[in-house]
Design brief:
CATH topology of one domain: VC0802-like
Distance between the termini: 46 Å
Main location: cytoplasm
Keywords: Cytoplasm, Phosphoprotein, Ubl conjugation
Shape: globular
Structural class: alpha+beta
GO molecular function: arginine binding; identical protein binding
Radius of gyration: 19 Å
Subcellular location: Cytoplasm, Cytosol
Family: Belongs to the GATS family.
Amino acid sequence: ELPPSEFMQVADSTWLVLSVVSNGREPPGCQATGVTKIARSVIAPLAEHHVSVLMLSTYQTDFILVRERDLPVVIHTLAGEFDIYKEESGERVPVTCDDVSNGFLKPKPPASPTLHPVQSPQTRFCVLTVAPDTLPAIATMLIDVLFYSHSPSWDASTSSQDLDSITFFSFSLIEGYISIVMDAETQKRFPSDLLLTSSTGELWRMVRIGGQPLGFDECGIVAQIAEPLAAADISAYYISTFNFDHALVPEEGIAEVIQLLQQRQESGR
């Protein structure tokens, strides 16, 4: 419904959304949440089969977007580990490999993935939700923050010196559930009684992945970050965008995360 515009670029691919519902079979002792919870069972296998994914973590759950043309590979890859369902008229219908076997081609082994640089700004972030019926009370503030408070920089090659003042604000509305990621300073502008967070009220630090626009074709970017964090049992929210990927980790664990990812890069050289 959006009018065509020279300022809007639309990717050619159509994407499908996968949501992973726990059945209580997580490994004992695993406390990690977010993308690290599904790193070994979903993210890594898809990367091994050369499936490009976009990751969207929210306050409520995590979503994986895959290109529609990759669906046969996705089903064949995950069917051994998961019961897979599709939605038809609001109902869950089981999916089997036979449903998508027509035209299935075993993917070629992926080339060695590119090791993208990672950077971590000093900014502290909050992961929040808002009750839908209170959204009108903060609508004006949301519009101001989203569109007017910051002058966006169109230079994709932002230098590391500018990272201390990085602008990052994420708002998602999925099936009535609202999820917001904002820096701690921006949070102070909102009525505190309307923003809901976990009981511990933890703050998060960001690891930004990429030195230039990542695009949508490369696979394994999420896996490169999620697997080391999963091995260390570190929770992470993960948000993919066209230009960069962003992992949010608990503030107290940022030093360990940077060390883990630096070791990953050194071992990959």
